[in-house]
Automatic annotation (TrEMBL):
Top-level division of the source organism's lineage: Bacteria
GO terms under cellular component: cell envelope
InterPro entries attached to this UniProt entry: SBP_3_CS (IPR018313), Solute-binding_3/MltF_N (IPR001638)
Similarity section: Belongs to the bacterial solute-binding protein 3 family.
Ranges where the Solute-binding protein family 3/N-terminal domain occurs: 63-288
Listed name of the protein: ABC transporter substrate-binding protein
Predominant location category: other
Cross-referenced CDD domains: PBP2_MidA_like
Keywords, in A-Z order: Signal
Length: 306
């Protein structure tokens, strides 16, 4: 996965020339006008126990940098002023504050975030990354939310993800929906001698959802929070179809064996303990999949915090 709500709304349409060319005015609504009603910025106090775990080079800078790829609402997307907001940005900023640091946000292509982590040009990724075994070969993940894959279809035209041979399915490029879900299903279709799935990959989740709204795709495969967000803002044009499957954690990737993993996990645990974590998630309407303790690569973090 790359990559869950309120009534605030500013729709993001496709480029005007494209809309004119197809003669449609439909647009996807998972790019919002701003933070949800009742939102407030939550900045916890620095925790000395957590600060002691921060790598010396990062502590000396006084800042910690992330790479993210909007729009992937509600985890990260841009408000009308171009500021990147979302629940993952709020969590990362609160974690930085807990470590006694200021957060620096870098807008990167999704495919470039992990290489930037490896190169050391950013400190960690924060873009709805799924923590999986393949990625763990190179990175350690601090897990902060459980999510699954959820499909959507045009309203009134349900789709069974297990019987999708011959259909056109939109995905965000380089997400688990792209690399694992739809690709794996298509391989099975071919093995069974059935029509192939036509996969439509897009650079962003909103573009993939727009393809479904406009009828260019029969279905959308995306992370459950993202699909739910797109459906709620589609003005009834699309609906959830099938059940959530392949639940896995979202995590913040850092280089393999980096001490930053322990520091981030300790910051997250501190936020869980003092209620900051739940407060942020609830402001964004996320109540399912919350973690009760900080994990690294799916296992409890070793460093206790007060």
């Amino acid at each position: 996965m790359h990559q869950s709500t309120g009534v605030f709304r500013q729709v993001l349409c496709l480029v005007a020339t494209v809309m004119i060319a197809v003669g449609l005015s439909a647009c996807v609504t998972n790019h919002e006008g701003g933070n949800p009603p009742g939102w407030r910025q939550v900045i916890p106090a620095a925790n000395p126990d957590v600060m002691a775990l921060v790598p010396a080079d990062i502590a000396a800078k006084g800042t910690i940098s992330i790479g993210t790829n909007p729009p992937f609402a509600p985890a990260q997307f841009k408000d009308p002023d171009g500021k990147i907001i979302g629940f993952e940005m709020d969590l990362a900023r609160a974690a930085a504050a807990t470590m006694g640091l200021e957060l620096k946000i870098n807008d990167l292509d999704f495919s470039m975030i992990l290489p930037a982590v490896s190169a050391g040009t950013i400190d960690f990724g924060a873009s709805g990354f799924t923590d999986n075994e393949e990625r763990r070969k190179t990175y350690d993940f601090v897990d902060f939310l459980m999510a699954g894959i959820q499909w959507a279809a045009q309203t009134g035209h349900p789709v069974d993800p297990d019987n999708a041979c011959g259909l056109t399915v939109a995905v965000q490029r380089n997400t688990v929906s792209d690399t694992d879900d739809v690709t794996g299903r298509n391989e099975q279709c071919i093995a069974d001698g059935k029509p192939e799935i036509k996969k439509l990959p897009y650079d962003s989740s909103d573009a993939a959802a727009t393809a479904l709204v406009l009828g260019r795709a029969d279905a959308l495969s995306a992370d459950s929070p993202t699909t739910a967000w797109a459906v709620e803002r589609s003005e009834g044009k699309i609906m959830l179809t099938g059940s959530i499957f392949d639940a896995a954690p979202y995590g913040w990737p850092v280089p393999k064996d980096s001490p930053l993993a322990d520091a981030l996990a300790a910051a997250l645990q501190s936020m869980i303990n003092d209620g900051t974590y739940a407060e942020i998630m609830h402001m964004w309407g996320i109540t399912d999949g919350l973690v009760e303790q900080a994990n690294i690569n799916g296992h409890p973090a070793a460093q206790p915090v007060g």
